[in-house]
From TrEMBL:
PANTHER family: COB--COM HETERODISULFIDE REDUCTASE SUBUNIT B 1. It is an enzyme of class 1 (oxidoreductase). Residues 5-87, 146-236 form the Cysteine-rich domain. One of its GO terms (molecular function) is CoB--CoM heterodisulfide reductase activity. InterPro entries: Cys_rich_dom, HdrB/HdrD_reductase. The keyword Ubl conjugation does not apply. It comes from the Bacteria. Its EC number is 1.8.98.1. Residues 289-312 are annotated as: Disordered. This is CoB--CoM heterodisulfide reductase.
Length: 312
């Protein structure tokens, strides 16, 4: 079993609890040991680095220093915002003078020895689509059409994030395809959803998120799949606002990719937090089943359907 220092991020204990729950459940099922970082604290999220790079780096540096004390291969997080702050700090700490200033603010100095990666990167590189496909030859998500949405910071800037293609990422695509889902050619996979402007400028978020939802819907997607808590919130919770701005009706489930992996693995739904989604996930699963029923009998015979009942 591989050991990783796990940083859930603040949203993982609040607005995106289902992301944290499904991440833990999937990693456990796939033999990835997540070791919680003792006494971790906020990395500064989106606002901190826009105000003060030194203090922002100290916030992330504190968590990096705690992770470095653990016997782990790398520090990993499911949240792109946390990932950006942590990896950005590691990048800035390459400057010895800056690292000295940061360490002067910390009880424990950060050595910059612990690699930082996303959970998505670990699942893509350490588990991989081939292993998932071999483990689940019945293709549990067969019939489900998805639009994978990465958001604007998961892979950017490329010299800092150092994972996947920053204009056309494919990690989630590979994982979803391995599970049998049809990944649609979604052209806006790295466009911004409006991020934290959902509070001061709801109109901006509604317009940007509405464009994403409208494009996914036009492609025939049954659901959108994301790896970002803020993106998921804007696309799911604010779907009604987006519909009003766009003058269209949306009823698009927005999953975390870990939730769909969990469904494919047959994990209990209570461990995946599907009940927390605003748009009912059953809409996508019903469409998936309907799609299967239209397949030739030779393709669908003997195939196992993923259990999607909430209390399984």
């Amino acid at each position: 079993m591989r050991n990783f220092a796990y940083y859930p991020g603040c949203s993982g204990l609040g607005t995106s609890m289902e992301y944290d729950k499904s991440t833990r459940a999937v990693c456990k099922a796939l033999g990835i040991n997540l070791m919680d970082i003792n006494d971790w604290s906020c990395c500064g999220s989106t606002p901190a680095h826009t105000v003060d790079h030194l203090l922002s780096s100290a916030l992330s540096g504190r968590n990096l220093a705690l992770a470095e004390e653990m016997e782990a291969e790398a520090m990993i997080t499911p949240c792109p915002s946390c990932l950006s702050n942590l990896k950005g700090t590691v990048h800035r700490l390459s400057d010895r003078g800056f690292r000295h200033k940061v360490n002067n603010l910390l009880e424990k100095p950060v050595q910059r020895t612990m690699p930082v990666k996303s959970v998505l990167q670990i699942l893509d590189e350490e588990v991989g689509s081939r292993e998932l496909a071999e483990r689940l030859p019945e293709k549990p998500l067969r019939g489900l059409k998805v639009a994978t949405y990465y958001g604007c910071i998961m892979n950017r800037p490329p010299e800092v994030m150092q994972f996947d293609d920053h204009e056309h990422p494919m990690a989630m695509d590979r994982l979803m395809q391995a599970l049998g889902a049809e990944v649609l050619p979604f052209p806006l996979k790295v466009e911004c959803c409006g991020a934290s402007f959902g509070i001061p400028r709801k109109d901006v978020v509604a317009t940007l998120s509405g464009r994403l939802l409208d494009t996914a819907q036009a492609l025939g997607a049954h659901a959108m799949v994301t790896a970002c808590p803020l993106c998921q919130m804007n696309l799911d919770l604010r779907q009604g606002q987006a519909a009003s701005v766009m003058g269209k009706e949306f009823n698009m489930p927005v999953f975390y990719y870990t939730q769909l992996i969990g469904v494919a693995l047959g994990l209990p739904q209570k461990e995946l937090g599907l009940s927390k989604l605003c748009v009912k996930p059953s809409i996508a699963f019903d469409a998936m089943r309907s799609n299967r029923e239209q397949e030739p009998v030779s393709k669908s015979a003997g195939k196992k359907k993923p259990e999607t009942k909430e209390n399984s």
